[in-house]
Amino acid sequence: MSGKVIEKIPGKKPRPIEGHKPAAAVLRGVVDRVYGAAWDAKARGELVGWSSSKFPIELAKAFDLNVTYPENHAATTAAKKDGLRLCQTAEDMGYDNDICGYARISLAFAAGEPTDSRKMPQPDFVLCCNNICNMMTKWYENIARMHNIPMIMVDIPFQNTVDVPEEKVDYLVGQFQYAIKELEKLTGKKFDEKKFEQTCKIANRTAAAWLKACSYMAYKPSPLSGFDLFNHMADIVAARCEIDAAEGFELLAEEYEQSVREGTSTWEYPEEHRILFEGIPCWPALKALFKPLQENGINVTAVVYAPAFGFQYTDVRSMAAAYCKAPCSVCIEDGVEWRETMAKENGISGALVNYNRSCKPWSGAMPEIERRWKEDLDVPVVHFDGDQADERNFSEEQYKTRVQGLVEIMEERKQKRLAAGEDVYTNFDNTKETDWSKATI
Q1: For site-directed labelling of 75, which of 27, 54, 87, 160 has its Cα 20 to 30 A away?
Q2: In the predicted model, what is the mean pLDDT of residues 262-290?
Q3: Residue 240 pLDDT more than 50?
Q4: Residue 385 above 90 pLDDT?
């Protein structure tokens, strides 16, 4: 690639907090428990549901319902190299290969196609929310038809203004009330207000810990790589209302804090460049995505996908507003502001964009967002063709070529800035510099 040989930095590997397992292992155990609990509930004859990842799951948890997540299941299936087979099965069933790879994997699995990835029980009901995209509605409707089961829908229309207007909050509170009534009919139970409030407290604690962990990418050098956050997506999706998830993310943030003090990092290479990685990763090609970056000392220190699951709120109305804010369902101004703020806080010198064929709402806005980055931040931006689940839509050679082009531009700019005595990265009054003189290595 660049001609440099990037080798690991000796002794840079972080350690767990004394007296604790590594946070990553703790969080893996949480997700295993969530899925195990669903299987146990199924065995007892209790209702088990499938939920979209950004459904306000706090509502269902007030009824002690066990749910699993098709998006999480599809990502795991794709990462384990079994996604293509299920995508093709769905296509044989009549679903077009232009629709989301997650949906095709999920629809094939719902129809009975087996997979060796993380298994989840078939659903007795589905919970759907279209704050990700409107395709979710048809995806979950088809699952409901296949199994002849109820679908509980929360409609969150596209957020075309930066601020969520009060009339939209009124509408969404009505949507929540409708979902509660449907859940009461489904379970034969009354809504437990106290349990709901307790669940919301846990969800907010989890979100706060997750966002805190994400924030440590702002340090230079960073104590982590954005790819570490990708590895925790199942945790924040499947377990954000679980107390052990909150504790696991608090432990993760504590590990990153310790790494800052000790001068260690999960990114065990020189940090030659820091970039923003835009979009959902190509799960079947994680190694192929990571290797060219590692070979060139490029650390991913800004991602939008991970912190997008950190919903924080104080009451039901602010909860409704919080669930409006998903990357695919907000206006261009919000999308640009999120990314540019992160770029400034986390100190990037370039951006790498996945034009994700499976996620057209996300990718459709990217040409304009890219233009704004180049104009506002003066950073090079390159993109590649990819897919979150269908490996046919990703070319490793094209990706390597695009990374090489980004490296060349960033390296040229870096040398010019160094020669002029300027900061290598975009302007970062609030990027946190690690004081290595105080580090305990």
Answers
A1: 160
A2: 95
A3: yes
A4: yes
